[in-house]
Amino acid sequence: MSSTQDGYPSGRNPDEGEEGTLCDRESPLSAKRLSKAEKKQLRQALREAHWKTHAPKERENRRRNRSARISAMKAAGKDPSVELPTGKKNIFYLRKKRPVDQIVFSNIRVVIDLSFDHLMNDRAINSLVTQVSQCYATNRKLECPLQLHLTGFGQRFQQKITSLDGFEKWAIKTHSESYLDLFPRSDLVYLCDGSENVLRTLEADKVYVIGGLVDHNQHKGICYNLALENHIETARLPLEVLSEMKACKVLTVNQVFQILSDMSVKTDWKECLQLAIPKRKYPNSVQSYPNPEKKSEVHVDT
Ligand SMILES: C[S@@+](CC[C@H](N)C(=O)[O-])C[C@H]1O[C@@H](n2cnc3c(N)ncnc32)[C@H](O)[C@@H]1O
Question: Which atom of ligand 1 approaches the CA of 190 most closely?
Fold first, then answer.
């Protein structure tokens, strides 16, 4: 599935949260005299121009990454044709094709709270659908996928996601009810960037809730306040391990989910954060973990 509804660069570079809009920088889009439609056209042209110049570079980067991995495997005495099979022998392909009744799920539970329909416009809803689809794709590739629940299905979100090809076969639990009615409150941990608690480990008896919201942080702290009102534990991801991380600590739903899914099989937060968060967010830090799975950096709305 395509990584973004918007492509890149768009009016807002979403992974940069509230900073980094093209309007902040000197750009043709900052010209106030342009109408909305003209800005949209210009944005589209910029996006096309970007892909024209960057697509070959990205392809080359992917090729280089793969060669680097092959060399590293050879140096470690491993056989790349076994470790890095392509096509139908690829482990991720095989996992994706597993019949649902043959999947052994991890005991880690994750909820995406989809009760924010009313706070999003159509574009944000589309972006959220893309992000949730990415969560699903990430989960399907795990040997033991996390137990993924979509709760509080808003009508507009539901309409969009159920129209995706094959959605009815997804190995996922969907609920119109709120997570509050589905799980004991003492099990719930709402993930919020503003929490004073830091998530250190994933526990099987907890249910980790991610706010299903694309709002460019317009509703700052909304999930945190909701969790406090409902007397639910909160936790933030330990982004401080990426010491060079830029100011904005608000991640997208799919980035948060990817970090949780990686942490279900690894133990190193730094590695998992680096795999999910675009490098430009921590530019001076040495990225020691190139993501073999990532075709290119994902640009999606926060
Ligand atoms: C795009 S953010 C929503 C931002 C929204 N304005 C808010 O304050 O909740 C989507 C969700 O990802 C999760 N999230 C984002 N950054 C996080 C962080 N640094 N630590 C923990 N969870 C985070 C939260 O569950 C959040 O609701």
Answer: 25
268 is an active site residue: no
CB 184 within 8 A of CB 111: no
- Regarding pTM above 0.85, the answer is no
- List CB contacts of 178: < 8 A, sequence separation 6 or more: 113, 115, 151, 152
With beta carbons less than 8 A apart as the criterion, state whether 197 and 166 touch: no
> Amino acid identity, residue 264?
S
How far does residue 110's CA lie from ligand 1's centre (Å)?
Answer: 14
Element (H, E) at 68: helix 36-75
Q: What is the DSSP letter of 107?
A: S
Domains of the chain: 90-281 (3.40.1280.30)
**pLDDT given at position 174:** 95
For the chain, list the strands marked E by DSSP: 109-113, 147-151, 173-174, 188-191, 207-211, 233-235
Contacts of 85 (CB under 8 A, 6+ apart): 91
Structure confidence at residue 283 (pLDDT) = 66
State residue 19's pLDDT score. 33
Question: Which ligand 1 atom is at minimum distance from the Cα of 217?
Answer: 6
Q: What's the CA-to-centroid distance between 210 and ligand 1, angstroms?
A: 7
